[in-house]
Amino acid sequence: MKKRSKIFSIANQKGGVCKTTAAITLAQYFAAVENKKVLIIDLDAQGNASHGLGIPKPIDAVYSILVKGMDIPAVLLSPRPNLDIVTSGPKRTADSLAISLMTEYQTDAKFALTLAFNKFIEDNRYDFVFIDTPPAAGLLQMSAVIMSDYIICPIVPKLFALEGLSEMLATYATIVRMPDLETPPVFFGVLMSMYDRTKNVTQRMLSRAIKMLGGDASRILPPIPTDVKVEEGFERGQTIFEYAPNSPAAIGYENGTGAVHNSAGRVGGYLHIANIINAL
Q1: How large is the C-alpha radius of gyration of the chain?
Q2: Nearest 5°: phi and psi at 222?
Q3: Is there a smaller number of Cβ atoms within 10 Å at the N or the C end of the chain?
């Protein structure tokens, strides 16, 4: 029997932390390089996951599915081989959708995504699902975390990102204590992007993140180096593995002294994160 799909929420309660970039990059990597069947669920009304994959005017498929009861295949897009996406659009806010979910699902509102998507995911035998969550606390983000097997919290070396991490850890702690949650999600780790090991601020922010994690440095994932190619690719509707597959953000940086290396013999980059996910 095929192993259950692995569902990841990419979540931080602040924007500008490379959350969308992580979601679409990992999804496209597994679809193209590992030949896995992958689904992206874009819960952010800005629709940036769609834009990053070259979809210029995404519809709000999430609203159509969750509130209007539309069948998922009717609004599903396939921007790459092996890669499907449920898009979001700009005509609603997270708050307005939350109100609609509470009306539609009532006491089960926090399980709305699970109820709407789980059967479809299993029936279509997706290997991986990546959920790009809204950059704010609320019912929609909570429903995504509840649905997930693993949580990745992206940060950048800036104070606001650490504030978002602190808030996300508090939300996670609340969710795992819920008595009606059968299998709580696993906090997979903190993923720092825009990492520059030559800057003191980067090391200070990492130290503060580790302190927030109770001193557990193992929950800090290998970082994504600063790389202008990421933004250049995003503007063209391409991930880093499509636009510049040998760049530092894709395959990491050289480090020959005691560090754990990825499959390219380097440290960090989205390749390193994919290697760790593959080992689950």
Answers
A1: 18
A2: -55, 135
A3: N
Burial 247-264 (b: 16+ CB within 10 A, else e): bbbbbbbeeeeeeebbee
Quick check: is 52 in a domain?
yes
Contact between 23 and 120 (Cβ < 8 Å):
no
DSSP letter (8 states) at residue 84: E
For residue 58, the enclosing domain spans 6-278
**Residues 6 or more apart whose Cβ sits within 8 Å of residue 72:** 65, 86, 116, 117, 120
The answer to whether the CB of 42 falls within 8 A of the CB of 88 is: yes
20 found inside a domain: yes
Whole-Å CA distances, 14 to 17, 28, 78: 7, 24, 28
Provide the 10 A C-beta neighbour count for residue 182.
5
Output the pTM of the full model: 0.95
Q: Does residue 106 fall inside a structural domain? A: yes
**C-beta separation of 226 from 190 below 8 A:** no
Question: pLDDT tens-digit profile of 19-49?
Answer: 999 999 999 999 999 999 999 999 988 899 9
**Six-digit token pair at 194?**
């825009």
The string of pLDDT tens digits covering residues 213-241 is 999 999 999 999 999 999 999 999 999 99
Contact of 223 with 193, CB cutoff 8 Å: yes
* CATH code (residue 147): 3.40.50.300
Q: Is 77 exposed, middle or buried (0-12, 13-18, 19+ CB in 10 A)?
A: middle
> How far apart, in whole angstroms, are the C-alpha atoms of residue 98 and residue 140?
6
1 inside domain? no
